[in-house]
Specification:
87 residues; mainly alpha; 4 helices
């Protein structure tokens, strides 16, 4: 939930590549993974993100819209309609 809250606020993520986060963050798009689990690698990831922060922030806002309840409801309705047409 914290990742989606950050995305909705336009905040890209810097983190270590760990289970769960590795499936939520798009490296170089909505955040940056530290290459190793060290303080230096984390610092380097922050510097890397700083170079793309504006585009990454925009990407986060776009990604957050995929989880909007109205968007999800519309996807469900569309899928139900397509299934009903096959009957």
């Amino acid at each position: 939930v914290a990742v989606l809250e950050a995305y909705a606020s336009g905040l890209p993520i810097v983190c270590f590549k760990v289970p769960g986060l590795e499936r939520q963050i798009i490296d170089g798009v909505t955040g940056v993974f530290a290459k190793e689990r060290t303080a230096d690698a984390f610092f380097n990831a922050i510097v890397e993100l700083d170079m793309i922060r504006t585009q990454a922030a925009n990407n986060c806002l776009i990604e957050a819209k995929k989880y909007d309840s109205k968007y999800i409801a519309q996807c469900i309705f569309t899928e139900i309609d397509s299934l009903l047409m096959k009957v």
